[in-house]
Every structure is written in C-alpha cells, then in structure tokens.
Amino acid sequence: MPALHIMTVIGTRPEAIKLAPVVLCARMQPDRFAVRVVRTGQHREVVDEVLDEFGVAADVDLAIMQPDQTPAHVLAASVRGLADVVAKERPDWVLVQGDTTTTLAGALAGFYGRARIGHVEAGLRSGNRWSPFPEEVNRTLTTHLADLHFAPTAHARLNLLRGGIDATKIVLTGNTVIDALVLARDFPARDSRRLPAPYVLVTAHRRENHGDALVRICDAIRALLNSHPSLRAWIPMHPHPVVRRTWADRLGGHERVLLTEPLGYTEFLRALQGAVLVLTDSGGVQEECVALGKPVLVLREHTERPEAVDAGVAWVVGTDVAPIVDAASKVLDDRARRDAMARSSDTFGDGHASQRILDALWDA
Rounded mean pLDDT of 229-237? Predict the structure, then answer.
C-alpha cells in the first residue's frame, strides 16, 4: 500500500501545538505517511514560534492575515486558498484540529475537493452557540463534514453519538496536547522572564470576552492585587489589538502587573508551572493545567471541557468582578483548597493520541 498523503491545516497557536505532534509522529513513519503542512496565516508570529520549537516547517503558507481581520475574512480567504492546494495536491486526508475558523475552512475545502476529512479534538460542545463565539458553531459544522472524528475524551465521544454520528466513525484517542507536553520535556531550555513568587498567570483573548467582559476581568485582577499585597500578575498579551489595548489601558503601569508579548510554548509552560494560580479563557490552557496539576479559574460562562471541572482542577467563574475575586481569594487564601485543586490527572490523555490518530487513518 502506498503512503497516505495527509494534508494538515494549521492557522492558530493551539492548532500548531496540537497538530505538530501528529506531524512529527507521521514523519517517523515515511513508509506509511507523506505529510504536508499548510498554514493559513490566521495568526502569524505566535504560530511561527511554536512550529519552530517543534521543528516543523510549513510547506505552504497562504498568508491570509490582515489587520483587524474578521472571521468572515479568515473563512473566505482560507477556503479559497486551501481549495486550490487540495485541487493541486489531491491529498487522501485533510486533517484539521479543534474549532477555529481555519478548522472549518480546512474541512470545507477538503469536502469541496472530495478528500476525506479527519477532525482532531472532535466532539467538544458547550451547548451555547454564542459561547465560545465563533468556535462552538465552527466545530459543530466541522463535525458534519468530517469522515473520521478523533474524540479526545469519553465525554466528547458521547457528544458525537448524541449528535447522530456513527459510532464506527469515532475514535477515542486522548488529546494531542498531552503528546505536545511530553515532547516539550526534551526541548532545550530557552531564556525566559521570571517573576518572583507568588504570581497569577492570566490569559484572555476569546471574542466573546472582547469589550466589557475583558474590562471586568482587568478590574478583577486589579481588585485581587489590591487585596493581596504580595501577589503579582503575569499577563502574556494576545496579538489581537482590542485585547492589547484593553490590557494596556486598564493595567498598564501597575507596579505588580507584568504585561509581555506572547510567550513561546516552552516558556509559557515554565510560566504556568511557576504560577500559584492560573486565570484563563483558553481551552488548551485548561487541559495543560489538568495535566500539570495547576489550579485554574475559567474566565467564561461555559466550558466545553467539563472533564477539567470534574477532575477538581478547574472552576468556572465567568467574567464578573466579584465572582472572579471571590474564587481567586478562596484558592489563594486556603492552602487546603489550593492543594486539593493542584492534582495532576491523565483525564485528557496519555501522550499517545498522535499514533492512535495515524493508525485510524491508515486503517480507514
């Protein structure tokens, strides 16, 4: 049997982190797999840095990114560019990951080009089409385009079954973010900025949190620092200009707030491990916190990763000032509560998801 031609589609930092292990695993088996990496350019610098750390280079770069881009622009430009690549290269499989606009574009382009579509991290659902926006709709639509669904957890698999997906088309794999964490153990150490303990690590960037919600998050961080005089906050800022302006306007100049550019993958993991508490609206960070045993407050009204809450590591607190400050204070001030949350778990996988995905593609 000739090697399967797999086209992996990457547009954002989470996709780079979670698909790089699959690419590397496939390239260790050249008799079975021929892998091409296509990046849309939905995000640029943050993706470049992650791919560089993993030693993965893009074979095709669509370079669709533009200032103040909208999901409509990303979708239209990505589908157009990816459709041309699919038509030219005729892959056996188009592999997409997660719930970004690039994910949906890759699935659509693959479908239009009559390639089979594999969806990594399939089956996540919040139950609210507006939260997260536009990710909840992106991943739901991708489900209906995919030929194979790689569910990271039993809960995600159940969501797919409830949505009418044929059980024979669902493969329970674990999440490739754990594969990435395993690989990162062997990455060379990079110089990184350090903060004296104790500090909280904060990330927030989702579109539904732009505007008033992010302002409230900023005000909650300020209130938390006011009530805890020895505490600091480290905030790696997402490249989106709305997010950066809000952080700078509300917290810039605060003597105990460190606003930095986005961190590289290994640098971020080091910052995460040193934090006493993590506050985030990121799905991937929730998964990393569970694997590393780091207490995390989820700055959203819903999470599509209830496994993190069930593991006792995550607490969904929303975006209002009082609940954030109250929950963070309870974790910071109660050592027993904090220790109870600081438990690592294999809820999201064992580090072998990439090989399970590739085996399923080979056998399909």
Answer: 95
For residue 192, the model assigns a pLDDT of 64
Cβ-based neighbours of 263, under 8 Å, separated by 6 or more:
192, 236, 271
Task: Label residues 149-163 b or e (16+ Cβ within 10 Å = b).
Answer: bbbbbebbbebbeee
List of E strands, 47-182? 60-61, 93-97, 116-120, 148-151, 170-172
Using an 8 Å Cβ cutoff, are 138 and 100 in contact?
yes
Show Cβ contacts of residue 156 under 8 Å, excluding neighbours closer than 6 positions: 121, 122, 123, 124, 125
φ, ψ for residue 297, nearest 5 deg = -100, 130
Q: Is the dihedral of CA 69, 75, 77, 81 positive or negative?
A: positive
Supply φ then ψ for residue 150, to 5 degrees. Answer: -100, 95
Q: How far is CA 176 from CA 147, 173, 266, 351, 353, in A?
A: 19, 8, 16, 7, 5
Q: How many helices and strands (H and E) does the chain possess?
A: 15, 13
CB burial readout 308-325, b (16+ within 10 A) else e:
bbebebbbbbbbebebbb
User: Does residue 191 surpass a pLDDT of 70?
Assistant: no
Does the reported pTM lie above 0.90? yes
DSSP H or E run through 257? strand 257-260
What is the Cα gyration radius of the chain? 20
Q: How many CB atoms neighbour CB 346 within 10 A?
A: 12
CATH architecture of 4-175+349-363: 3-Layer(aba) Sandwich (3.40)
Please tell us whether the domain made up of 199-341 is placed in CATH 3.40.50.2000.
Answer: yes
CATH 3.40.50.2000 domain span(s) along the chain: 4-175+349-363, 199-341
Omega prior to 236 cis, within 30 of 0:
no
Answer for the pair 300, 319: CB distance below 8 angstroms, yes or no: yes
Of the candidates 140, 142, 145, the one whose C-alpha atom is nearest the C-alpha of residue 162 is 140
Q: Beta-carbon neighbour count of residue 302 at 10 Å?
A: 17
- pLDDT at residue 104, as a whole number: 98
Question: Distance (Å, rounded) from C-alpha 324 to C-alpha 327?
Answer: 5
Give me the active site residues, please.
Answer: 99, 121, 135, 205, 207, 238
CA distance 113 to 57: 24
